[in-house]
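go over my protein:
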Amino acid sequence: MESVADAPITTPDYAANAKYIRPWFWYDWANSAFVTTIGTVLYGPYITSIAKAAACPGQDSDLDCAVNLHVLGIPIAPGSLAPYTTTFATLLSAVVLIFVGAIADRMDRPARFLGACAWLGALSAAGLFFVTGTRWQLGAILMVLATVFLGSSLVVYDSILNQIAAPDDRDRVSSRGWALGYLGGGLLLAVNLVLVTMHDTFGLSTGMAVRISMLSAASWWGLFAIIPIKGMWDLRGVETPVAARNEGAVAGSLKQLSSTFRDLRAHHPQTMLFLLAYLFYNDGIQTVISASSLYGAEELKFEQSQLIALILLVQFVAFGGALLFGRIAAKLGAWRTVLGSLGIWTIIVVAAYFVPEKAFIPFILLGVAIGIVLGGSQALSRSLYSQLVPNGREAEYFSLYQAMERGTSWFGTLLFGLVYQLTHTYRLAIVALIIFFVLGGFLLSRVDIREGIRQAGNEQPAIV
């Protein structure tokens, strides 16, 4: 029989853990630099230029040369390398992150594991500085590693939300974290905008300016991660039963993992339905984000400086959008608010198809619309899902969520890459993404949130 000291903790002490909320915010600030500067703006166009240099020396278009990039004997169009890299990173993450979640739930000090993943990810991202000439393979490998480590750190980070914020506070806390992330990512992007657009003034080539910018994002990630890691160093995870702890981290995690999907289907059907909905609509969101700079550069023929300026605008608009959606959710509930945002996303994708080449003003208007709904839809999805997670299995369940989180969509990037490979136009590739918002919205509308909270054994918040 377990002693009182060995009995598992069933409810976190939210009052005592409130001191961890402020340092928790800072990891959004830290990792958003990588997501924004590298993942959203620079990596896609830069690795595409490296791939074209390898496949088609001296030529700008995929149509002007034979497709001669090969991975394991499979021909890859240079223009499809960036979305295919994201696709592979996500497939790998889907496997790795589930194991990460099972292991993290059994760790007594989650912030320490968060730190290991964050710093390994930042180191991988820093390696992109050395991707030059025709070294597209190195660029793809480093991006995969950075993406997997980012996802691993976010599994732990997101799961901590359940330990530090009470059910009625999670929409607010999650929204403020996302807002701070957009502000931090935007500030660094502003600096990189100056560097890239004025590279001649600093005696740099465009390529070197881009590489320094990517290095700055990796450094930002690694350095600012110190704040949440140090600030939450003593935060203890939900205690596991003695029998489970005695099984060890790896063996116990494998055993726990084997029951996760059975438990999800048998006892948490509303949580499973939410994850399915999230799979579709988040894939659409993530693909729009990751493909926006590629679409603007290759299809609409905008300069790199224009694209960075646009993404910078989106960042600062998203800062306000996340806070705005947090307030709307306080009145209407996160579920209705997210559903409304998916309708706006659908309009945005359709409108993007009709933007004329080099028409920057309409593209800016789309960017403003994206900024308004971007932060809110993501922050509220995180807090909404946190209500559906069984206590004591937060990291394990958030690993399923994180496999479909930012930077890790794979249905969307796969479809985007395939449509481009078949049609050689990014317009059809972008409009094809409408299916993800429609399907995701339909499935989300079928989720009974309060029933899902009851099935998870959690406290019912006042508004969902």
Notes: The chain has one domain: 27-234+246-456.
